[in-house]
Amino acid sequence: MKRTMNLVLEKYLIDNKDVKDLPKVAALHFNVTETTVYNYLKRLNLSPNNRLKWTREEVSIVVSVIKQYPTNINYACEEASKLINRTPHAILKYYYKILKKDPSLYMLTTGSKEGFSQNVKNQARDKEDGTVKQNLQPFMIIMKELLDLSKDDRDKILAFFK
Predict the structure, then answer these.
(1) Exposure string (b/e) for 81-116, b if CB count within 10 Å is 16 or more?
(2) Residues 43, 48, 49, CA angle at the centre, nearest 5°?
(3) Of 47, 55, 65, 90, whose CB is crowded by the most CB atoms within 10 A?
(4) Quick one: which H or E segment has residue 109?
């Protein structure tokens, strides 16, 4: 009996290999766990490895959007998902697993031209224009002001302290 059910499940998986969320659908349909379905898919060489590799263009879009919204990573991921064919959750996962650990992108966790932030946790935003009122510490306020100055003015200030 069990072998018959296995054959029926295998036939179902082969016939429906292109169905979205196949492991979940098959698990419900055959009253088995998703792990069982994944194991059958691996055995049949139909492993649902439908993950797409991230392209440079996608990564650059995600980085630029996160730079625009450094204080609200979830909002940034939602905005980026509108520009690329990825879900906000996929972007968030990629950010935390890859981008945030990349030493060349450490700036993403500290702020942008909009100001500095302690972290990328969610902060309240205006519903109309998406701006956030940042609670900057005094040092961060001074740094933001310095960065807003022209290069010549910054050089004058730095020369003063030498």
Answers:
(1) beebebebebbbebbeeebeeeeebeebbebbeebb
(2) 110
(3) 65
(4) none
Total tally of structural domains belonging to the chain: 2
DSSP state of 115: E
* Residue range 61-114, pLDDT digits in tens: 999 998 888 777 888 899 999 998 888 888 999 988 888 777 776 554 445 555
> At how many degrees (to 10) do helices 88-97 and 73-83 cross?
120
Residue 13 in any domain: the answer is yes
Instruction: Identify the DSSP state of 33.
Output: -
Q: Does some domain include residue 105?
A: yes
State the residue range of the domain holding 62.
56-135
The answer to whether the beta carbons of residues 117 and 134 sit under 8 Å apart is yes
